[in-house]
């Protein structure tokens, strides 16, 4: 996937179409009447559409492709084109608002193959970024986006990352990218940062699932950058990290954690997250991050 990099390296998505996936392209994926061949030609021309009205219509209708089973369509065309248009200020505010509303609705819409929701979250990250760079959302619109992001993050139960022949779903990682853009937005206040932080906590160590596709790294990024907002004290961060490192579903203690998938996965995921945090905190010279170091160190010491 071609995502922005702020401090942590992100995993790249290698696009590889399969005949089966190509045959399954949804009939609804014809934005502004563009068929696949025309979209691939558009990609080759770096998404150039001279006419503003056509470009904005194409962008609005591209969201219909985010659930396509063919990764070259949903990732290599729909996501890449939408990100390109937003990062180059090529869409109107009306289009951005329409994308915001449409993508939020996709976070809760039926998604039998599991692609549409995580890719809606990924594109919403760029919608949120446009508001961060040049604010256009009303307080109500921004609050609605935060509510949708928190609700989706806490609802994730599909942990499929990369599947050969299908590509990425990657719901926790994609939603972490959305959370990052919200965290960096100076208009997002501490009460909402607390909600974002605690929503991320629900996915750091999901019961019985071992993260192996870089999810821990992506989930750590918004937590790291939250320190730069200078809104949480060292004591607040230490309390949060210490609570995070608890036994959770194992009960009152970490005893016998190595005898169950729940214990093994919890320790695996927490150690990955906390180690990433510690590594980044130890490498940075930015004093803003100092408030997180004692909490991360305490959490690591508490791990079995």
Write up what this structure looks like:
- The protein is mainly α and 304 residues long.
- It folds into two domains: 19-207; 232-304, no CATH class.
- Helices cover 58% and strands 1% of the residues.
- It contains 13 helices and two strands.
- It has helices at 19-23, 36-44, 52-62, 71-87, 93-106, 116-133, 139-155, 171-184, 190-204, 215-226, 234-244, 261-283, 293-302; strands at 162-163, 167-168.
- The protein has a two-stranded antiparallel sheet.
- Strand 1 and strand 2 form a beta hairpin.
- Helix 11 (234-244) runs parallel beside helix 13.
- The protein starts with 18 loop residues before the first helix and ends with a helix.
- Residues 1-25 have low confidence and may be disordered.
Summarize the structure.
The chain is an all-alpha fold and 304 residues long.
How many DSSP helices?
A: 13
N/C terminus separation = 34 Å
Derived from helix and strand composition plus strand pairing, the structural class reads mainly alpha
Strand residues, percent: under 5%
Shape estimate: globular
Write the layout of secondary structure elements.
Blueprint: H1 19-23, H2 36-44, H3 52-62, H4 71-87, H5 93-106, H6 116-133, H7 139-155, E1 162-163, E2 167-168, H8 171-184, H9 190-204, H10 215-226, H11 234-244, H12 261-283, H13 293-302
Antiparallel strand pairs: 1-2
Summarize this structure as a short list of keywords or feature phrases:
304 residues, 2 domains, two-stranded antiparallel ribbon, 13 helices, globular
